[in-house]
Amino acid sequence: MNSDLIRRVRRLELLSLVACVALGATLLASMASPDPVTVRASRFEMLDADGRVRGYWRMTDDGSPAFSLYDADGSARFWMTVAPNGNSELCVKSAAGALFRLHVDGEGHVTTRTSR
Length: 116
Description:
This protein is of the alpha+beta class.
């Protein structure tokens, strides 16, 4: 009877060792960084707590990528775009209507403009 008990204990020890190795391998595998995920879309909308669109990241009708942010009243306050001809533009508008515009043409010429 003593030898039967010893065999059972050894079997349990071996089973415990196998379980620990399997658990360790599972934990290590879960800690490995996942493959990067690509999300594809032609438009993303950012919504506030009330469900209003407060920002877009989209492709315009002429194929230009554009990013824009809106205030709580729905007025555009920040936007940037890259036109198909290579021109880039960044605009910032205050609540009072003051506008700062940075324009870079396809050849690298930079212009800025402010207005009220």
